[in-house]
């Protein structure tokens, strides 16, 4: 029971962060869960927790979703998930973390080099969903491929939430097909689900108070910090 309360509190705080900034909470929650959850179950259970968190975010901010972007993103995600599922339990993570961190840094500060705004949503959906099955928390990666400069902050946060709902839903289906039992942990998931709903409501109110220009600068700094953390984790594993 103590573990359920602890992770529920963590879910409330991290979902508030994500609802306010669009990214960050999932990575923090993954780091916290890693201290208590067996490694083989970490990514599946984190995926279930993030599915609930992002579903709640979509429920709270559904009016701002860019559905024109989401529909092809969804189709690409299905293809990417189907292609990577057979490899999900066997792919090395450390090198992927380094490459992912470097990509996020490049996409955040030199997006014009990658021409991300020219990426078709289906390509973005397929590539990021495949990586999510291997690396777990790829919220910063999805945020980096969204055409953020063309959208208002509410659209960025809401559309990112819908994209992550799609990805984590596919992740749950994928790991269930690999005989990973997630429902055995239903008390933990119930507590996290209720906590993320409250956190998303609190974060959405905070989002409305942040000026547009400050939102983009803080978001870029947050993405960079998360990317550097990924690089450090990957390099530490490779050198250890």
Automatic annotation (TrEMBL):
Q: Which domain of life is it from?
A: Bacteria
Locate the transmembrane regions by residue number: 69-88, 123-146, 185-206, 218-235
Subcellular localization is given as: Cell membrane; Membrane
Query: Which GO cellular component terms are attached?
Result: plasma membrane
Does the record carry Metal-binding as a key word? no
Q: Which InterPro entries match?
A: TM_pro_TauE-like
Q: Does the keyword Cell membrane apply?
A: yes
Q: Where is the signal peptide?
A: 1-19
Provide the coiled-coil residue spans: none
Give the record's keywords alphabetically.
Answer: Cell membrane, Membrane, Signal, Transmembrane, Transmembrane helix
Topology with regard to the membrane? Multi-pass membrane protein
Instruction: State where it is primarily located.
Output: membrane
Extract the Pfam families matched here.
TauE
Family indicated by similarity: Belongs to the 4-toluene sulfonate uptake permease (TSUP) (TC 2.A.102) family.
Q: Give the protein's recorded name.
A: Probable membrane transporter protein
Species for this entry: Limnobacter thiooxidans
């Amino acid at each position: 029971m103590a573990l359920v309360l602890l992770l529920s509190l963590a879910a409330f705080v991290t979902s508030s962060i994500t609802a306010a900034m669009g990214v960050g909470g999932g990575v923090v929650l993954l780091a916290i869960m890693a201290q208590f959850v067996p490694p083989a179950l970490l990514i599946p259970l984190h995926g279930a927790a993030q599915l609930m968190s992002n579903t709640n975010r979509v429920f709270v901010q559904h009016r701002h979703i860019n559905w024109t972007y989401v529909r092809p993103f969804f189709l690409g995600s299905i293809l990417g998930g189907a292609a990577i599922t057979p490899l999900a339990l066997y792919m090395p993570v450390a090198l992927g973390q380094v490459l992912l961190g470097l990509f996020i840094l490049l996409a955040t500060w030199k997006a014009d080099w990658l021409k991300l705004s020219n990426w078709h949503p289906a390509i973005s959906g397929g590539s990021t969903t495949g990586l999510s099955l291997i690396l777990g928390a790829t919220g910063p990666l999805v945020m980096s491929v969204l055409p953020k400069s063309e959208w208002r902050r509410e659209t960025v946060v809401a559309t990112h939430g819908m994209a992550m709902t799609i990805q984590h839903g596919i992740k749950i289906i994928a790991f269930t097909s690999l005989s990973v039992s997630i429902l055995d942990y239903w008390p933990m998931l119930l507590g996290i689900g209720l906590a993320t709903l409250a956190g998303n409501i609190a974060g959405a109110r905070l989002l409305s108070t942040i000026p547009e220009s400050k939102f983009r600068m803080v978001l870029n700094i947050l993405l960079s910090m998360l990317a550097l953390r990924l690089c450090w984790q990957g390099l530490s594993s490779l050198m250890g």
